[in-house]
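Blackboard transcription, Thursday session:
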Amino acid sequence: MTQATTRLRSGTQAKALTAGLLGAAPSLVVASAMLVVVALIVIVVPLLPGFDAYSQDLSTVREHPFSDMAHLLGTDALGRDVLDRLSVATRTSLIVAFGAVLISMTLGLAVGLVSGWRRGRLDAFLMGVADIQLSIPVVLLLIVVVAAVGSSTGLLVVMLGLTNWVGYGRVARSIAVSLREREFVTAVVAAGGSSWWIITRHLLPHVLPQVVILAAFEIGTVITIESSLSFIGLGIQPPTPSLGGLIADGKNYLQTDPALVIVPALMILLVIGGVQFVSQGLTARRARR
Amino acid sequence: MSALLSVNDLGVSFTTPAGEFDAIRHVSFDIAAGETLAIVGESGSGKSTTAASVNRLLADNGRISGGSIVFDGTPIQDSDERTMRRIRGRGIGLVPQDPMSNLDPIQRVGTQIREALEVHGLAKGAAARSRVVELLEMVGIPEPERRARQYPHELSGGMRQRILIAIGLACRPKLLIADEPTSALDVTVQRTILDELDRLTTELGTAVLLITHDLPLAAERADSIVVLYRGDVVEQGGATGILESPQHEYTQRLLAAAPDFDSIRLVADRPAPDSSGGGVAEGSAAPLVSLRSVGKEYPIRNGLWGAKTPFVAVEDSTFDIARGETVAVVGGSGSGKSTTARLVLGLEAPTRGTIDFDGADIGSLRGAERMRFRSRVQPVFQNPYGSLDARWTVRRSIEEPMMLHGVGDAASRKARALELLDRVALTSATADKLPTEMSGGQLQRVAIARALALRTDLVVLDEAVSALDVVVQEQILELLVELQNELGLAYLFISHDLAVVRLVAHRVHVMDHGRIVESGTPDQIFHAPEHDYTRSLLQAIPGGVPAPQEA
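(Written on the board underneath:)
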């Protein structure tokens, strides 16, 4: 009996240890590797000699990947280096995505925290605004705005930021609503804490981790929207390369040179997948602690 | 002798991120058919783990590491899920603690009882329906046919607990595990439920494994008692024997700490301040707080489109709190005592009457005056784990009131926080801990320290010791009295527990349905209760009603 118990115990311990090392690890390792590839392309490629995303060279058009060491991923229809353009395009897309997510997260946090803390009519009003916001199709709205005032990277960031805050707002609000009834918050009110003090010192630190996880998911969504817009010509304007733009350029040569579409599409996959899996892995790790 | 349940040298361990730890070690006991055995211990003693291992419902990270459990002649410590499913409910019934979370909110209670019968194929269709009504009748629910069609939220807490008992007894199990069956209930309801449970199990000949933190209650209800302390059995034997001559030091401490009618009071009586002004001690002529015909109503909407009708939480309450005095407000849940606490804290405004603090109406205070009031009145709440921000260190939480009121600089605030920790008997090492790393009793000390960070005159203690184990509860009560004597604090002591109130209060007000039904000194209330509600509160204290005495 005793022996069996001991054996059982060491067995469980070993199992727990392996689970700890590997349980979360595979997806996290793969996801991190995906992001490392993205980082290499965005950061290291521009440092390489001969980096040039814009010069056209009609003598070397549509070279296949890995056929010319000067153009590792080949060239596009105008003879521009695909790897270099991919690097700039990814950087542009990431700037747009992070900028937009930062704007919508800040806006959502502000609305959600105030709404959840104050409740009452203000809450009803703000959540009504959120519902209206949700009922407007974002892409259609963007098409209208871009068609009306033209497109620029700055406008794109602001527009994507202003139309995606509702998710953050709802998460922040629901946590704030449950926290405001908690005794530690009441104790701060009774000690003379102002709304600003409570929201910034007590509610925000509880809400932020949840919202950051949501933000990681949203980065993927925003990159998809941005790529779609660029694909249909309403996002980032040429000659500035963007991932959607690269796909749009390459689609004409899909039959003969599929790499022109596959390379930027793979990049979108790497960015979205990497960010999502990392955030999932981190969430799981948080939950386990 | 053949026991119905025989637990032998049982050990259970849990795997946690911090490693493996033993929740219980070498636990052995027998329960004969029809007998009641109580397992008593504080939180973390392993009493619920013992119960969970008997019907093999341990959490996923827990497992039986040794020993045997023999139920009705069959060893079940290694039985598989299929075997256990047949035993659970039919052989071993369970009455869980919290009736709110243990009933499905979207199923009619009758359906939930019927489910218990149907899983074991004991009744079907019309037979099951009539059996449900029988069971409801048996556990003392009036209008059983109508009640069976209701949902849990339509029933009171006491009735929900009766439903759980009905489910536990539905298949006429030979053994019933009752895990703190009344802890979530109003004090006055507790006794009736336990009486009911007693009667039923005697009638049906069911053996009971009663899990409780309350040693006097266990002694009153059980034939034999097992006292658990941090996973070890420290004492076991007949109930009367343990109550009368506890052998182990821990049992003695448990008994000594449990307040009853013979406990020595921690504060001395004070002369009653009568309204004529005579006989009042010098300097304390004006009360610190005075409530005059205070009422609080909340508008409640009837149904989705119904008219708003006022719900009266507090009605026409008048009482004073003198400086340095402890005034207790006692009552069951829904009596309005917590609303009274919120009103005195100035968290809500009364809809009628006035509350004066140091001569000024709280409701009229604005700006700097209001902040000054906030610095002088501080709360301590019931749930120690909810009273502190889980993301703030202990020191930061204690410093917070000083930061809010711009008291001192960083260095002096830190010094004051450490001084306060010392004052509530915590080491300075706790200063940088997070609430999750501390015990309930320690957290309650931190909450008290925070309440004293400013020049506090009045601390509102809303069930401040109710969530604590008796031994810890006693220590906190002693600390409160000591602080009162040193700092001249006044306390508004909100509680449902008359036995605790008797120890620390100078004056007691009994509240029922928002009204103060009786007021007096603890002795008057205890020995010459005039109101029926006060008497029912007194009866709720395990150990019986005290002999009437001259007040």
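Lecturer's comment: The first helix of chain A runs from residue 2 to 22.
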